[in-house]
Design a protein that fits this description.
The protein is α+β, with helices and mostly antiparallel strands and 208 residues long. 38% of the residues lie in helices and 18% in strands. It folds into two domains: 79 residues, Winged helix-like DNA-binding domain superfamily/Winged helix DNA-binding domain (Arc Repressor Mutant, subunit A, Orthogonal Bundle); 91 residues, Nonspecific Lipid-transfer Protein, Chain A. It starts with 8 loop residues before the first helix and ends with a helix.
């Protein structure tokens, strides 16, 4: 790990987290909390397995990531963020907010995983009527399904499907992102190919 060798907090931080892939590893662990090496690699399309191993070792040495041996029946190594690593969440959210306008255009070759929506959902969506019964929206994109749900006034995500979702959205990553966060009207998104099943009011309840 190279150093900028500057007596500056920003430079010292970048010494630890400024390398390629490092913050994306932190992203995966913020979303998944505890996960296997294979889960990390799946969530980081394009990373070489030896580079992932190197980055994890560097993050462990820096006190940002820790590993534990899970007991049977899992019996595998699980990686998770230390408290020092979890303290990066507001930094990640701020970077995501700054980078959000850059998603106005997407390349067909860009990879996407549905669980990546977890952090922008936390950043942008709110429950406008928290006293009403909770709702669930199942989102299908990027080869994954995730569920966006309200609970106690907050909005959260979880991987998988819902037994009886109030709405189901299926489409390309850009259509999903633009519609979820209110950049594109639902009627326009459906005309562009988004599939939406459910009451539009369910979606409007969460939009900024």
């Amino acid at each position: 790990m190279r150093s900028y060798e500057q007596y500056c907090a920003l430079a010292r931080a970048l010494d630890l987290i400024g390398d390629r892939w490092t913050l994306l590893i932190v992203r995966e662990l913020l979303i998944r909390e505890r996960c296997r090496y294979t889960d990390l690699r799946e969530g980081l399309p394009g990373i070489a397995t030896n580079l992932l191993a190197d980055r994890l070792r560097e993050l462990e040495k820096a006190g940002i990531v820790s590993r534990e041996e899970a007991p049977p029946p899992i019996a595998t190594t699980l990686f998770h963020l230390t408290q020092r690593g979890k303290d990066l969440e507001p930094v990640m959210l701020s970077i995501g907010r700054w980078g959000s306008p850059l998603l106005a255009r997407s390349a067909r070759k860009d990879a996407f995983r549905g669980h990546w929506l977890a952090l922008p959902v936390k950043l942008h969506l709110i429950d406008r009527t928290p006293r009403r019964p909770p709702i669930t929206i199942e989102v299908r994109s990027g080869g994954e399904s995730i569920v966006i749900e309200t609970a106690d006034g907050s909005v959260r995500t979880r991987p998988g499907t819902a037994d009886h979702p109030d709405a189901v959205m299926t489409g390309t990553p850009q259509l999903i992102v633009d519609t979820l966060f209110g950049r594109t009207r639902l009627t326009d998104a459906k005309a562009a190919g988004l599939k939406y099943i459910g009451d539009p009011a369910t979606l409007r309840r969460l939009q900024p």
